[in-house]
């Protein structure tokens, strides 16, 4: 699909230094892999080490939960950064794969690659897995397209994206050519200094809620959003005003969320659905002014998470929604 090609070109892995150039940044790609795997929930057991043959590997683990218990699974991560040459990865298994897996008690192999992978690679891994002599129980190929998907998944992975590939990150965030929903990039000014908090997403969204209980009971009489505003990171901790003066006899609840966590697709939909659930409960309400601010916020955030979908294949579309039990 043409759209896919241009979308993928937003992500330039050449921003990550080449491994074979001795400029002090040779381990950049491995550190990037390490940060991204951590953001995805893996635990780094052993960070990048350089083997005798110059190979750089790391060990990560993941806790697998089943019906009767849980088990920690160790995986050997092998990184290949071919983005600068553009070559696909043709071989993954090194000669002594078994001894390396056994040495670190690993059952799983993760290939982490910045380019595409040739078709023989999976066959080679499968062969190893099927071999009696092998201690390999499973493998996972994290190639360029998987990395691209992961980078924009959550606030944590977006942070890794921003730190390691700042130019691509800015291009991704400010790109509106795919969404076609709005013609201009929305802005959100810090309440104190006017800085646009959507520029770099370093700020916070604040929600002020008035909560009032009925007499001494636990029944909530009022649960109203009274204000929604933004601050840059520098002004995040200043109180806008003393709301308790305005709403006497009420508790004032001040919620603060990082803007970055609201512009990842998962963060966005989670926060929106949380708010919708609260509204449905019947206890949650807005005054007109704060509802306008809340709606504007949702519309602005949607700009950053929406991407247009050009005639998606049916299965692809359904698979995107499987988690929501839409059938
Ligand atoms: Zn500010």
List keywords for this structure.
alpha/beta, 2 domains, Trna Endonuclease, Chain: A, domain 1, single chain, 327 residues, binds zinc ion, 9 strands
List the helices and strands and how they pair.
Layout: H1 2-8, H2 28-39, E1 43-50, E2 56-65, E3 70-80, H3 97-103, E4 108-113, H4 119-130, E5 138-142, H5 144-151, H6 155-164, H7 166-174, E6 204-213, E7 220-231, H8 243-246, E8 251-258, H9 259-262, H10 265-280, E9 285-286, H11 288-305, H12 314-321
Parallel strand pairs: 3-4, 4-5, 7-9
Antiparallel strand pairs: 1-2, 2-3, 6-7, 6-8
Helix pairs in contact: 2-6, 6-7
Zinc ion (ZN) is lined by residues 190, 192-193, 195, 231-232, 234-235.
Description:
- With 327 residues, this protein is of the alpha/beta class.
- It has 2 domains: 2-174, 3-Layer(aba) Sandwich (Trna Endonuclease, Chain: A, domain 1), CATH 3.40.1350.10; 181-327, no CATH class.
- 35% of the residues lie in helices and 22% in strands.
- The chain has 12 helices and 9 strands.
- The protein has helices at residues 2-8, 28-39, 97-103, 119-130, 144-151, 155-164, 166-174, 243-246, 259-262, 265-280, 288-305, 314-321, and strands at 43-50, 56-65, 70-80, 108-113, 138-142, 204-213, 220-231, 251-258, 285-286.
- It has a 5-stranded mixed sheet with strand order 1-2-3-4-5, sandwiched between helices.
- Helix 3 (97-103) links the parallel strand 3 and strand 4.
- The longest helix is centred in the C-terminal third of the chain and has 18 residues, at 288-305.
- It is elongated.
- The structure holds zinc ion (ZN).
- Residues 190, 192-193, 195, 231-232, 234-235 line the site of zinc ion (ZN).
């Amino acid at each position: 699909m043409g759209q896919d090609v241009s979308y993928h070109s937003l992500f330039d892995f050449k921003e990550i230094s080449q491994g074979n150039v001795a400029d002090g940044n040779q381990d950049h790609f491995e550190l990037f892999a390490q940060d991204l795997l951590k953001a995805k929930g893996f635990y780094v057991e052993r960070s990048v080490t350089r083997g005798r043959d110059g190979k750089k590997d790391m060990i990560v683990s993941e806790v697998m939960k089943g019906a009767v218990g849980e088990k920690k699974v160790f995986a050997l991560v092998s990184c290949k950064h071919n983005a600068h040459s553009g070559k696909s990865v043709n071989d993954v298994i090194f000669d002594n794969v078994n001894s390396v897996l056994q040495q670190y008690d690993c059952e799983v192999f993760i290939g982490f690659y910045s380019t595409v992978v040739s078709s023989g690679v999976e066959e080679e891994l499968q062969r190893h897995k099927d071999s009696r002599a092998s201690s390999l129980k499973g493998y996972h190929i994290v190639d360029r397209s998987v990395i691209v998907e992961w980078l924009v998944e959550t606030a944590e992975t977006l942070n890794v994206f921003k730190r390691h590939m700042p130019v691509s990150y800015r291009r991704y965030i400010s790109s509106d050519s795919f969404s076609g929903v709005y013609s201009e990039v929305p802005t959100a000014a810090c309440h104190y200094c006017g800085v646009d908090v959507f520029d770099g997403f370093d700020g916070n969204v604040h929600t002020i809620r008035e909560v009032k209980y009925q007499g001494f009971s636990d029944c909530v009489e009022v649960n109203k959003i009274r204000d929604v505003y933004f601050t840059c990171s520098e002004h995040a901790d200043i109180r806008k005003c003393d709301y308790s003066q305005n709403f006497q006899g009420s508790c004032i609840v001040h919620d603060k969320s990082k803007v970055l966590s609201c512009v990842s697709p998962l963060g966005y939909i989670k926060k929106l659905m949380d708010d919708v659930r609260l509204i449905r409960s019947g206890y949650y309400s807005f005054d007109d002014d704060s509802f306008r601010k809340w709606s504007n916020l949702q519309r602005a955030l949607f700009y950053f998470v929406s991407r247009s979908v050009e005639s998606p294949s049916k299965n692809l579309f359904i698979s995107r929604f499987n988690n929501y039990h839409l059938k």
